[in-house]
Amino acid sequence: MCGNWQKIKDEVASAESNFNVLLNNVEENENSIYNINKTYIVLKELQSSLDEQNAIIFYLKYRNLISELNVIS
Q1: 20 to 30 A Cα–Cα from 33, which one of 12, 23, 40, 43?
Q2: Do 22 and 36 form a contact (C-beta atoms < 8 A)?
């Protein structure tokens, strides 16, 4: 994983693009909007952690994102 940071950046950027579609189509349910917005913030944190190219920090941010995705699924 440590040698392939550009591919990871590309995949996370793709995830963000796909998530933006979800943000635009979210129902007006207040709880749903809160959870989706929170997940988007965690996704952006994951994306910003890529600049450090630190596998441990990336893994922790990734785990947080997966946890948030489980909440909204």
Answers
A1: 12
A2: yes
